[in-house]
Amino acid sequence: MAKYKTEPLKLWKKAKELRLDFYNDYANAHEKGGLRWAGGAWTFDALPAGLGDDVYPLTSEPYGASCAFDQKFSSRCLKATESYGYAHDLCSYMRNYWGSILINEYAFGGPFPKPDFIFQDQICCSHTKWYQGVSDLEKGIPLYSVDVAAGACEPFGELTDAKINYVAGQLLDGIEWLEKVTKRTFDDEKFINACWNDFRSTSTWGKIAELNMSVPAPLDEKTMYALYVLATLQKSSQWCADFYDELYDEVKDRVDRGIAAVENEQVRFMSDSQPPWSFLNIFRYLENKYGIVSIGSLYTFGLEGMMDYNREKDTFTARPVPDVKLSDRESACYELAKWHLHKPMYQGFYHCNYKSEMMACIARNWKVDGIMVHYNRGCEGTALGIAENRLYLLDQGFPVLSFEGNMGDAGEFDEKATLDRFDIFVESLGIKPISS
C-alpha cells in the first residue's frame, strides 16, 4: 500500500512543449526573417534579447545533453568528433555538439542550423574554446565571449564594485559588438525587460528548490531535470519566467496537500552534478526498488537557480529579485553582472571547499540520508575537486556513494556495475527493498 498520495505534474506537458518550441524556433528562425545565435547555458542571454523579438538562441550544454540522451545519435556525433582529431577526454557535451555539426544533423530533425553569431561567457576552461571550435567548423562565425571569472562572492569572498564592473564593462562592450555584427539597433527597453525576466526566472527556480525540503518531496530529481533545463535554454525570456511562476504555484500546492513525487518515499538521497543522461533510469531504479527519492543537488538547484548560502545560519535559500531600478543599459549591465556573480555553481570553480560546504548545507536542510557522487569524466568543471567533496561530506557524517561515468558519453558508463554498487551501498545503510 502506498505511503503517500501521488499524482502527475499538471505542467509536465507544457514544460515539454516549451522545450520543443525552443529548439524549433531556433531551427526555423531564418524562415521568419529572424536571427540565430549560439552560446552557453550561463550566457547573459538578456543582451541578445535587446536586438529584437525574432532573435533565437541555441544553448550549448542542454543541446549536448539532448544529443547524449539519444545513444545512437550521440555515438555517431562522438565518433565524428574523434575522427576529426579532437581528443576523447574533452568535455563530452562539447564533443556531441561538434559532432552534430560535423555530421550536419540537428538532434531535433533536419540539417544542423548554423548560427549567425556566437555570444558566450567563460568560467569553465572549455567555454570559449568550445565556440572557437564552432566558429572554425562553420567557417568563421563572429564570436564574442565575456570573462566572468572575477572571483568568489559572499560568503566565500568579497563581491566588490571592481569585480562587478569588470564583467559589466564587457557586457557594455558586447552590446556595441552585437550592433556591429547584426547591423541592428539595440533596444534598451527590451534588454531591461529581459533582465527582469532573468532575475525572476532564477529566483523562482530557487524557491521551487526550497519546496523540496518538504517530506514527502513534491518533486524528484529526474523530473526536475526536465524543469530546470528551461532556464538553461532562455532564462531571460517571458515564457520561462511566467512558466516558473506557474510551476511554483503547482509545487507549493503539492506541498500543502502532501503530494509526493515518490509514493513510497522512505529514504532521501541527493546527487552532486550532471547525471549520465543516457541512463536516467538509475533514479527510477532507486525509487521503485527502495523508495529512495533524490531531492536534487547543488547542480540541479544552483546551475540556474539563484541561491544564498549563509555560513553562520547554515541556510541555502532563494535569492530575492533585486530591489533596484534599471534606468538604462549601464545600470542594467551592472545589476545583471552582480546578480550572476552570486551564482552558486560559479563558486566551485574557485575552490573545491566552497562546493563541499554548500553540499553539506543542502544535505542537512533537505534531510538527506545519503549522497551520490558522480565521478563524471565528461565535465572538467563540475568534477573539479570531487574527491575532496566526498571526503568532506564523509567527515560531516553523511554516507557517500561514489560511481564513475560520463554525462555525455554512454560508452563510459557501466549500468549493471553501477546498479550493483547502488545495491551494496543501500544495503550497507540497512535499507530494505519496498517489497520485502
Q: How does this structure look, described?
A:
The protein has 436 residues and is α/β, with parallel strands linked by helices. 48% of the residues lie in helices and 11% in strands. The strands form three sheets. Strands 2-1-3-4 form a four-stranded parallel sheet, sandwiched between helices. It has a four-stranded parallel sheet with strand order 6-5-9-10, sandwiched between helices. A two-stranded antiparallel sheet has the order 7-8. Helix 5 links the parallel strand 3 and strand 4.
What topology does this entry show?
Elements: H1 12-27, E1 35-39, E2 55-59, H2 60-69, H3 71-84, H4 92-102, E3 117-122, H5 127-137, E4 143-147, H6 161-182, H7 188-211, H8 221-234, H9 238-257, E5 267-270, H10 281-290, E6 292-294, H11 298-302, E7 307-310, E8 315-318, H12 329-340, H13 344-347, H14 352-365, E9 370-376, H15 386-395, E10 400-405, H16 415-428
Parallel strand pairs: 1-2, 1-3, 3-4, 5-6, 5-9, 9-10
Antiparallel strand pairs: 7-8
Helix pairs in contact: 1-8, 2-4, 3-4, 4-5, 6-12, 7-9, 7-12, 10-16, 14-15
